[in-house]
Amino acid sequence: MLILLAVSWISLYLNDRAKVTKLSPKDCLALHNLNDLISCLDAFTVSPSFYDSVSYAAAQPTEEENTAWTSVVSSMLDVNANDCSSIKLPSVLEHFYVVTTFSDADSTRSFCILSETTTSINQNYTKGWGSMIVPASAKQISRRLHLSAPHPQADINTPQQAGAIFVLSGAHSLLVSGRFRSAYAMETDCIVPTQPRKGYFKTDPTHDINEPFSIANRAIRDWQNANDGCPSETCAYVQFHGKAAASCAADTMFISSGLGNSNSSLSWYRDPSLDIPARRLRDVARTVFPTWNVTIPPDDPDCALTATSNVFGRLINGVPESNVCMTEANTLTATGEFIHIEQAIVSRQSNVYDQWGEVFKRTFRTSCTEGTVEDSETGICKES
Ligand SMILES: *[C@@H]1O[C@H](CO)[C@@H](O)[C@H](O)[C@H]1NC(C)=O
Ligand SMILES: *[C@@H]1O[C@H](CO)[C@@H](O)[C@H](O)[C@H]1NC(C)=O
Ligand SMILES: *[C@@H]1O[C@H](CO)[C@@H](O)[C@H](O)[C@H]1NC(C)=O
Fold it and tell me: Hey, what's the signal peptide range on this chain (predicted)?
C-alpha cells in the first residue's frame, strides 16, 4: 500500500514536473518535509536482482571511495555549525553524492542530508550506498541514538518510520540503505547458511561486511567510541526491521540485542544487575502500546528473529571486526548497545509515529550539549 502510494506520488510528480527531463534523486531535495524526502529517495532503491557480477562490482566502492565514504560519514557526525558547510565531501564522491542543508517544515528544524544524486538504468541509484541524515547543529541533538533502516522496501515503511523517530527523539543520525536486500541475488560468503536455500545475499548489509551501509555503520560506531562511547542509559544503535505476519505471529514487536535464545542468553536478557536498553525499550513500549504484544527473547524463546547473525550486532557485542562473519556474540562480551526491532506492519504505520517518539524519549535520557537544556515538556534539548 505504502509502496503503491509512493509510486503513484512519484508518477504524479513525474507527469507534473518533469515531462521531458527524467526524475533524479536530486529532485527529492526540493521537498519540504523529511518524511517526504525519505519516501522520495526510497523510490530510487536499487531493485531486486538488478545486479549481475559486473554491475555489482562496478557499483561497489573502490578502496579510495571507501576511505572517502568513511570520512564523510564521520564528518556528518561532527557537524556543529548550522548550515552543513563544515561537512567535507571528498572529491572522489562529488560525481554521485551531495551534502545538502534541508529545512523540515514539520519540525521546523534543519538537517544535513548525504544523498546520492544520479541513477543508472530505469531510476535505480547508480551506486546505492544509501543516505545519511543528521541534525544541522549539535544543539539539535538530544540523544546519542544512531537509527538505521537496512532493508528498504523489503521491510515496508521502515525508512520512513526510522526517519520519524529520528526527528521526534532528537537522535544523532539516521542511515538508510540504498539497495534492496536482494539487489544482487548472489549469496554472500560472509554469513553462510546452516540450511540450504536459507542464505543471505551480498547486498544484504546485515549479513555482509562489504556493503557501504555496513561500512557506514562501522564509521558511526568508531565516531561514537571516540566521543564518550555509548553508555547504555543514553546511547544505542537501533535497526528497524519489518517481519511477515506469520513469523513470530503473536509478537507485534520483538526486540533483541543480537544474542540468541540459549539459556545463558536468556539469562543475560533477564539479569536485573544489567541495564539492557532492549529490555528498557520493551518496558516503556508496553506502557505506550498496552494492547500490543511487545517481547524480548525470554518472553518468546521460540521466536528465531534474534539477530544473532547480524554483523553489526556481533561487532557491537564484542566480536572482533575480523571475525564477525564467523563468530556469534556471547554474554561475556555483549554490550547491549545494539537494538534490533522486528515489527508487524501495524507497528510501522504513520499513525503511531508519535507514540514511538515517546517510547524512545522515555527509554533514553537526554545528553544535551553545552548551551542547551532539556525542555521538560517536549523531552528535547533546547537553547538555555
Ligand atoms: C531498476 O531497473 C530495473 C530494470 O533492470 C527495473 O525493472 C526497475 O523498476 C528499476 N528500479 C527502479 C527503482 O527504478
Ligand atoms: C498476543 O499474544 C497472544 C498469545 O500469546 C495472542 O493470542 C494474541 O492474539 C496476541 N495479540 C496481538 C495483538 O497480536
Ligand atoms: C535450559 O533451561 C531449561 C529450563 O531452565 C532446562 O530444562 C534445560 O535443561 C536447559 N538447557 C541447557 C542446555 O542447559
Answer: 1-18
